[in-house]
Amino acid sequence: PLPTKVKIVEVGPRDGLQNEKEALGADVKIELVERLARAGFVNVEAAAFVSPKWVPQMATSAEVLARIERRPGTIYSALVPNMQGFEAALAGKADEVVVFGAASEAFSQKNINCSIAESIARFEPVARAAKEHGLRLRGSISTAFGCPYQGAVSLDAVGDVVARMRDLGCDEIDIADTIGVATARQTQAVMLRAAQEFPMGQLAGHFHDTYGQALANIYAALEVGVAIFHSSVAGLGGCPYAKGATGNVATEDVLYLMQGLGIETGVDLDQVVDAGLFISAQLGRKSISRAGNALAAK
Ligand code: HMG
Ligand code: MG
């Protein structure tokens, strides 16, 4: 049987906008985050305290966290690669910090400029500080289904990083298909391997839709008991004009699937469609969400 209830983590304001060529001002991001929280997401990824030289789009993260109107019960998350990021997240009153590593050495080097082992060592003080201050701690594992530099990634490589993030004390661990190459059976195999190290109920599926497989992978993940999924409103991040950019699966499409399956999300699809129209207009283009566009045209 499929789960009767899932948690959708809306990552559009972070993962989506981070990959858009068009840099948006803080006001637009704030409005987006507020609209998404009102739509009912219990978790919105709103910020990333990373080097602005590496990811200029996230440079307004402090302002976004400082100025959003907080909805009680919503968890506002921030990515933090190190203690410098943690301090900024703490000052910004993030509810949850996300340490992010990879299952492939090559991607770890390219994304955060260190090896997997070095990354875990950097996350240790972050994890301790998060616990000390009562913040939720999430771990994200990139390239769990394939790496753009190294190619195949073994199941044990994923299991190993899951175990290390478990040992850090993560409350939740994201298994990410960074480049959207996974297919359905592989999704099940990776999730089942991860669940040998960490409870299935606290694993999240983070699927990019590069090869159009994300919804199939989500369904496959549901079949093995995954009940947390990440998605981006309007499929943000997949701007067709930004070469190489590939978005997360669109939230509207995921919600439409869950509705059809009778799986509770607590999120109002109509409000998400509106939020998708809003942010797409700000970016000066059409939404990438199929369900979003179909519903908007009704
Ligand atoms: P580094 O150059 O090795 O770090 O970068 P460093 O400690 O040597 O510091 C170099 C400079 O960065 C210094 O500034 C630091 O102050 C600054 P300078 O003296 O040169 O002016 N710095 C910072 N600034 C702001 N906030 C910080 C911070 N830390 C250092 N926290 C570092 C290492 C990790 C910082 C860098 O590589 C970085 O910022 N990478 C960002 C990577 C990133 O954001 N990637 C996208 C998010 S992950 C993702 O999208 C995947 C995910 O969606 C899952 C999936 O789909 O796979 C989660
Ligand atoms: Mg991602």
What are the key terms here?
single chain, 298 residues, alpha/beta, eight-stranded parallel β-barrel, globular, binds 3-hydroxy-3-methylglutaryl-coenzyme A, binds magnesium ion
Give a brief rundown of this model:
The protein has 298 residues and is an alpha/beta fold.
In whole angstroms, how far apart are the ends? Answer: 33 Å
- Overall mean pLDDT stands at 96
Rg, nearest Å: 17 Å
Number of helices: 12
GO molecular function: hydroxymethylglutaryl-CoA lyase activity; metal ion binding
Catalytic activity: (3S)-3-hydroxy-3-methylglutaryl-CoA = acetoacetate + acetyl-CoA
Family: Belongs to the HMG-CoA lyase family.
GO biological process, one term: ketone body biosynthetic process
Q: What does this entry look like structurally?
A:
The chain is of the alpha/beta class and 298 residues long. It has 12 helices and 8 strands. An 8-stranded parallel β-barrel has the order 1-2-3-4-5-6-7-8, surrounded by 9 helices. β7, α9 and β8 form a beta-alpha-beta unit. Bound molecules: 3-hydroxy-3-methylglutaryl-coenzyme A (HMG) and magnesium ion. The site of magnesium ion has 5 residues, from loops.
Tell me the layout of helices and strands.
Layout: E1 7-10, H1 12-18, H2 26-39, E2 43-48, H3 61-67, E3 75-79, H4 83-91, E4 96-102, H5 105-112, H6 116-132, E5 136-142, H7 155-168, E6 172-177, H8 184-194, E7 203-207, H9 214-223, E8 228-231, H10 251-261, H11 269-283, H12 290-297
Parallel strand pairs: 1-2, 1-8, 2-3, 3-4, 4-5, 5-6, 6-7, 7-8
Helix pairs in contact: 2-3, 2-11, 6-7, 7-8, 8-9, 10-11, 11-12
Bound molecules: 3-hydroxy-3-methylglutaryl-coenzyme A (HMG) and magnesium ion.
